[in-house]
C-alpha cells in the first residue's frame, strides 16, 4: 500500500521535474490512497489479485451502516452528557429519564437519584467528549464523502481572508510586518497576565531574554545568513509560542492536553496487568524501574506497531506533516520526519522516508537529525511517566518542539539547494515484509519492544556504571585539591558549565535551583535524558521549586545527547551509505540545534506558566 499526496503550496509556483515525477511513480506509486482508511481502499481485492476473506467482504459491504451505528452511539453519549451533567438541567434531566425509562436505567448507569449540581463527580466536562465526538464524526464522514467538499471551502476562506490581503502588502513590507506581528504577540502574551508567586514579570523577562539570546546566537553562527527563509523562522517560533500559550494559559488547552496525558498514562498503565500476571502485584511498585517502566515500553511499542499495520499512524503523521508543510515552507520529507519524530522517535522517523534519504540535501539531512534530537518518542514517554514525570509537560514539550526544530535548523543550516520533495508530501510504502494480520503485527511489535526495552536497560546500566567510575576517579583526585564538599564529579563540572544556560531559561535564582537544573542539562547532553530524569525524580531534587522543576522537565525532554549522535549517524549511514560523510559532517551542528530547540520550549514555558505546581505533579493528569 502506498501513499502519495502532491501538494502545491500557495507560496511557490515550482513543481517537481518530469523526470522526478516518473521516478516517484515507479518507486512509490501514484495513487492517492488514504492509508487504508479510505472507503475505496478498504475494499475487497487488491491490484495484485489477492482474495479477500468473506468476513472482510461483508464488512466492506455494510460498513456504512456500522459507521452510522458508531456515530449514533457517540452522538447519544455526548447528548446525554449535555443534558444530564449540565448543572442547570441536572435535576430536570434525572426526573425526566426516570419517568420515561424507569428507575432501573438510573441504577444501570449508577446515577443516584439524589445527585445535584453540588455533588457532581469531579472531572466531568463537556469539552473532552465533544472533541472526541467531533474527531470521530469528521473521520467517519470523510470515509464516505470526498474531502474536497471540506478542503475547498477552507481553502477559499484562507485565500480570501488571509492570503489575498497579505499579497496586497508590498513584498518588501511583508517580512518586517510579519516579524513585528510575531514579536507583538509574544510580548503581549508574556507580560499581559497578572503576576503569580512563581512567575513574576522579572522572571518572564529573563526567560524572554534567554529566547532572544538563543535565536541571536544561531543567527550569528548561521551557515548562510543570506539564504535564511524568514517565513520558516517566524512561523515556527510563533507556532511554538501559541501552542504553549494554549496549553499554559487557557482552560481549554490545559483540559485537552491534560486529557491526552490522562489517556497516555491510562494506556501505559495496562502494562501493569501483564507484569502482575508474570510476577505479583507488589513487584509493580513505581520504585522498580525494571518491572514498572520496561513492560510499559514493550506494550507501547507493540501497540504502535498495531496502529502502523492498521494505517492509523501514517494517516496521523501525514495530517500533521501537511500543517507544517503549508505553514513553514519546508520540503515534504522534512515535514513528514518532523511530524513523525514525537510518535516513533529518532532513527525510526527517518526510516519512514527511506527511499528519499540518499537524495536529501545537506540542509534536509540537518533537519532530519535535528527533529530527532529535539523530541522524544512515544516508547520512552512511557518510561518517563513511569518515573514520575508530568505527562502533560512531556506531551506539550514534544508538540512545541516540532515547529521549534524546523525553525532552529533552518536558522542554523538554511536550504541552498532544490529538494526532491519540494511541493509534495509523500509517505512511501514500507518495503519490509508485512504482517499477515493484526495479531502478527502485535506479536512483531512485542518482540521489537523487548529489543528496545533491553537496549534501554543495558544502556542505562552501562552509562550509570561508567558515570560512577568517572565520578570516583574525579572525587579521589579532587580530594588532593581540597575539593571535598561537595566532591568533584561530572555533575558538578557540568553544573557550572551550563549555569548561564539555566539562568537564561528563567530558573528560580534562590535555593540553589540554578546549579541543580544546570547539572541536569549537562547530564542530559553528556549521558542521556534517562539519567537526567532519574536524577530529577530523586531525593536530591525534591527541594526544587515548582517553576524550576517545570522548566527542567521541558529542558531535558529530548534525545539531544552525544550517544544519540552515534545512533543517528548509524541509522542514516545504513539507509544511505553514499551519504555517510555528509551525515557525519552535519551531525554535531544538528545536535546543538536539537538541544537548543528543546531549550527554547523551556524558555517559553518559563515565560507563560502562572501556576507551575499543577503541571509538575507526579504523572500529572485529571
Automatic annotation (TrEMBL):
Q: Which residues cross the membrane?
A: 64-85, 175-193, 205-222, 228-247, 259-277, 289-311, 323-345, 391-409, 452-474, 486-505, 551-575, 587-609
Q: Which UniProt keywords apply?
A: Cell membrane, Membrane, Transmembrane, Transmembrane helix
Domain called Concentrative nucleoside transporter C-terminal: residue spans: 394-606
Molecular function GO terms recorded: nucleoside transmembrane transporter activity; symporter activity
InterPro entries from the entry? C_nuclsd_transpt, CNT_C_dom, CNT_N_dom, Gate_dom
What gene is behind this protein?
SLC28A3
UniProt keyword annotation of Chaperone present = no
Q: Where is the Concentrative nucleoside transporter N-terminal domain?
A: 209-279
Q: Where is the composition biased (Polar residues)?
A: 1-21
**Cellular location(s):** Cell membrane
Similarity-based family: Belongs to the concentrative nucleoside transporter (CNT) (TC 2.A.41) family.
Q: Where is this region: Disordered?
A: 1-50
In what ranges is there compositional bias, type Basic and acidic residues? 22-36
Q: Provide the Gene Ontology terms for cellular component.
A: plasma membrane
- Domain of life, per the record? Eukaryota
Q: How does it sit in the membrane?
A: Multi-pass membrane protein
**What is this protein's record name?**
Solute carrier family 28 member
Q: Taking every annotated instance into account, which residue ranges of this chain make up the domain Nucleoside transporter/FeoB GTPase Gate? A: 290-389
Amino acid at each position: 500500500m502506498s501513499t502519495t499526496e502532491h501538494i502545491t503550496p500557495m507560496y511557490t509556483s515550482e513543481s517537481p521535474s518530469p523526470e522526478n515525477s516518473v521516478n516517484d511513480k515507479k518507486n512509490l506509486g501514484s495513487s492517492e490512497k488514504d492509508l487504508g482508511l479510505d472507503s475505496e481502499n478498504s475494499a475487497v481485492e487488491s491490484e495484485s489479485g489477492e482474495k479477500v476473506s468473506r468476513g472482510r467482504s461483508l464488512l466492506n459491504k455494510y460498513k456504512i451502516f456500522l459507521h452510522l451505528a458508531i456515530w449514533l452511539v457517540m452522538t447519544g453519549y455526548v447528548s446525554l452528557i449535555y443534558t444530564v451533567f449540565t448543572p442547570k438541567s441536572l435535576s430536570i434531566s434525572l426526573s425526566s429519564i426516570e419517568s420515561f425509562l424507569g428507575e432501573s436505567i438510573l441504577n444501570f448507569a449508577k446515577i443516584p437519584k439524589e445527585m445535584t449540581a453540588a455533588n457532581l463527580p469531579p472531572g466531568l466536562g463537556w469539552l473532552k467528549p465533544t472533541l472526541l465526538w467531533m474527531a470521530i464524526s469528521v473521520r467517519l464522514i470523510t470515509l464516505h464523502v470526498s474531502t474536497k467538499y471540506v478542503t475547498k471551502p477552507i481553502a477559499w476562506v484562507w485565500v480570501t481572508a488571509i492570503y489575498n490581503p497579505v499579497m496586497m502588502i508590498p513584498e518588501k513590507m511583508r517580512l518586517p510586518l510579519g516579524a513585528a506581528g510575531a514579536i507583538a504577540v509574544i510580548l503581549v502574551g508574556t507580560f499581559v497576565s497578572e503576576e503569580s508567586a512563581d512567575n513574576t514579570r522579572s522572571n518572564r523577562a529573563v526567560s524572554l531574554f534567554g529566547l532572544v539570546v538563543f535565536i541571536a546566537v544561531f543567527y550569528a553562527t548561521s551557515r548562510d545568513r543570506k539564504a535564511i527563509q524568514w517565513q520558516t523562522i517566524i512561523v515556527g517560533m510563533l507556532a511554538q509560542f501559541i501552542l504553549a500559550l494554549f496549553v499554559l494559559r487557557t482552560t481549554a488547552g490545559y483540559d485537552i492536553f491534560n486529557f491526552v496525558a490522562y489517556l497516555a498514562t491510562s494506556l501505559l498503565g495496562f502494562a501493569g496487568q501483564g507484569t502482575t500476571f508474570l510476577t505479583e502485584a507488589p513487584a509493580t511498585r513505581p520504585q522498580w524501574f525494571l518491572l514498572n517502566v520496561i513492560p510499559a515500553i514493550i506494550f507501547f511499542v507493540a501497540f504502535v506497531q498495531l496502529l502502523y499495520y492498521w494505517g492509523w499512524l501514517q494517516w496521523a503523521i501525514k495530517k500533521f506533516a501537511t500543517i507544517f508543510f503549508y505553514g513553514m515552507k519546508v520540503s515534504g520529507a522534512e515535514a513528514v520526519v518532523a511530524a513523525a519524530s514525537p510518535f516513533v522517535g529518532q532513527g525510526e522517523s527517518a526510516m519512514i522516508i527511506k527511499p528519499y534519504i540518499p537524495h536529501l540535501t545537506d540542509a534536509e539531512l540537518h533537519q532530519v537529525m535535528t527533529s530527532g534530537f529535539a523530541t522524544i518518542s512515544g516508547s520512552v514517554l512511557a518510561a518517563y511517566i513511569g518515573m514520575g514525570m508530568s505527562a502533560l509537560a512531556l506531551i506539550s514539550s514534544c508538540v512545541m518542539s516540532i515547529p521549534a526544530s524546523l525553525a532552529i535548523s533552518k536558522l542554523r543550516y538554511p536550504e541552498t539547494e532544490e529538494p526532491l520533495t519540494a511541493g509534495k508530501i509523500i509517505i512511501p510504502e514500507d518495503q519490509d515484509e508485512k504482517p499477515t494480520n493484526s495479531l502478527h503485527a502485535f506479536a512483531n511489535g512485542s518482540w521489537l519492544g523487548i529489543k528496545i526495552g533491553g537496549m534501554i536497560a543495558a544502556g542505562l546500566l552501562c552509562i550509570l556504571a561508567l558515570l560512577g567510575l568517572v565520578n570516583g576517579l574525579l572525587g579521589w583526585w579532587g580530594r588532593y585539591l581540597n575539593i571535598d564538599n561537595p566532591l568533584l564529579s561530572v555533575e558538578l563540572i557540568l553544573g557550572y558549565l551550563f549555569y548561564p544556560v539555566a539562568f537564561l531559561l528563567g530558573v528560580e535564582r534562590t535555593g540553589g535551583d540554578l546549579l541543580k537544573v544546570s547539572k541536569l542539562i549537562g547530564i542530559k547532553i553528556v549521558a542521556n535524558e534517562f539519567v537526567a530524569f532519574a536524577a530529577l525524580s530523586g531525593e536530591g531534587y525534591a527541594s526544587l521549586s515548582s517553576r524550576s522543576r517545570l522548566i527542567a522537565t521541558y529542558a531535558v525532554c529530548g534525545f539531544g545527547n552525544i550517544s544519540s549522535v552515534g545512533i543517528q549517524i548509524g541509522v542514516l549511514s545504513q539507509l544511505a551509505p553514499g551519504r555517510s560523510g555528509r551525515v557525519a559532517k552535519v551531525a554535531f551542528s544538528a545536535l546543538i540545534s536539537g538541544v537548543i530547540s528543546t531549550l527554547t520550549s523551556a524558555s517559553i514555558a518559563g515565560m507563560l506558566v502562572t501556576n507551575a505546581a499543577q503541571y509538575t505533579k507526579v504523572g500529572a493528569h485529571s
